[in-house]
Amino acid sequence: MSFRRSGARRGDADIGGNPPARKAVRTAKLAGVPIAFAGRRVAGASKRALGRPADEVDREIQLRTAQHLADVLGELKGCAAKLGQILGIYELALPPELAGPYRAALSDLQDSAPPMLPRTVHTVLAESMGPDWRDSFREFDDRRAASATIGQVHRAIWHDGRPVAVKVMYPGARAAIDSDLRQLRGLSWLAPVFVPHTDGPAVMDELAECLRAELDFVAEAENQRRFAEAYADDPDFRVPRVVDQRGDVIISEWLDGIPLSRVIASGAPAERDRVGMLAIRFFWSSAPRTGLLYGDPHPGNFRVLPDGRLGVVDFGACPAWPPAQFPALVHDLADALINGGPAELDTVARRHGFIDGPRGLDSAALAAKLLPFTAILRDDTFRVDIEWLRGRTLDAVSPKLSNAYRQLGVPAYLMPFQRALVTLFGLVAQLDTTGPMRDEILRWSPEFRAVMDRYQLRAQARADRPTDLSAVRRRRAGILTSDVAAG
Asked: Beta-strand (E) ranges in 231-270?
């Protein structure tokens, strides 16, 4: 790849546009989404009155709103783009005929965002690294190599000859976040456009915490150092080391590799299985090895390296993990589902804060909804694909009053893990992954391991129990008697 020395000419500034930073401009763009949505609904009513099928009109409104919102979020970047990522996960709940257009509208927000102008990048570098920032690099490519939620990445050659990735925060990102969050909370009523009965304010609260963490480049660089040290010389993974961090700039070792989007689109089944299992391994091993949760296992944050290892980037959303109450929750919930029944599940839900006060819980219905997840722990190998995940997502977001999920509240401390786990499932499903998921999870979770040890002991005890021949004869006699009666 050829590099251009920094210090671009005036004409070079035309390669892209900066994200709107002025509060009035950002507010106007976001406010235009519900106004346009309302206009489409009015127009839709007229179309229905003229005889167009209601389903066809509603679908058109959904798709046009999805595209409009995706375009606005992609242009505004920051927390707006992060919301687009989150909504992109929930497209799995849509029927197949709608899922494709939603995915196209939402899932590529980062890559489609307009790049910063070179002069803007140079300004951020000068403010963070000093006016002589160019002396730190042998070469610096003004063209954006990748896009991040609140910044973009450039390829460069460090002064010692190492290829590096230079992550630069968008100017004004911090000032724009609070305004964006207020506006997006006002848009939370649009959540049903994507998934009926989604708790829009809860999504916004999670978004706020995530974005505020990603604004702290000092903390992100420290997180990345911890991961790089923990996974140094690992045969399966490579985390690039931090070369330098100053102000709104993080400089890391450059990773050459194949983006997961290409593996998802055209990878051989065996390669997709291998990469999916590696993603599972990295996620479940992150807390035991680093004391941090890898909170954003998004396809854009992984690369398949030439030596086959999985390269991992972006460590902004990595909270300290686990909280004190989390291991007991994992054990008790899994034990109730694997070795217990609805009564035990009800007890666990109340003990760990999923149900408060006298609120009722249809624990038998909830156990039935959670049963498909337990197969991951019961089976030697398991397959997670889009259809499987769509079924689980539809279970969760069903608007029926009888939906047991609707009876639950989620403790606040679980939100980072819940979002990360949903994102991981989305990645693994897109890869259509089949593999020994149980063994990988048990390797890193003593809580799950204790539950499955008990399950195996109970299964062995049942297998070793002498057969009660008299009971067998009585059952057979009952079957014969019922057959004669039926005849």
From this structure: 237-238, 242-246, 249-253, 258-259
Domain boundaries along the sequence of the chain: 1-6+113-171+216-254, 20-76+78-112+184-208, 256-487
State the pLDDT at residue 92: 56
Contact 326, 293 (CB under 8 A): no
CB distance 323 to 413 below 8 Å:
yes
Give the Cα separation of 417 and 437 in Å (integer): 18
Residue 139 is given by DSSP the state E
Greater confidence, 17 or 213? 213
What's the CATH fold of domain 1-6+113-171+216-254? Phosphorylase Kinase; domain 1 (3.30.200)
SS3 7: coil
- Name the one residue in this structure whose structure tokens are 């079957």: 479
Q: Whole-angstrom Cα distance, residue 261 to residue 91?
A: 17
User: What is the Cβ-side half-sphere exposure of residue 233, based on CA atoms within 13 angstroms?
Assistant: 0
- Tell me the pTM: 0.77
**In a 3-state reduction of DSSP, which class is residue 62?**
helix
Which of 177-188 are b and which e, b meaning 16 or more Cβ less than 10 Å from the residue's Cβ?
bebbbebbbbbb
**From the CB of residue 130, how many other CB atoms can be counted at a distance below 10 Å?**
13
> Model confidence over 43-66: pLDDT tens digits?
655 655 566 676 666 666 666 666
Higher pLDDT, 337 or 84: 337
Strand order in the sheet with 310-312: 237-238, 310-312, 302-304, 258-259
Max Cα distance, the chain (Å): 96
> Token pair for residue 40?
């489409």
Residue 441: what residue type? I
CA distance 38 to 34: 6
Cβ proximity of 162 and 253 under 8 Å: yes
Per the listing, tokens 């229905």 go with 48
Q: Are 436 and 380 in contact (CB under 8 A)?
A: yes
Q: How many CB atoms are closer than 10 A to CB 471?
A: 9
- Please give the Cα distance from 85 to 317 (Å, whole number): 14
Distance CA 5, CA 349 (A): 59
pLDDT in tens, 180-223: 666 666 655 555 544 443 455 665 676 667 667 778 999 999 99
| Centroid of chain to Cα 103 | 14
d(CA 89, CA 296): 12
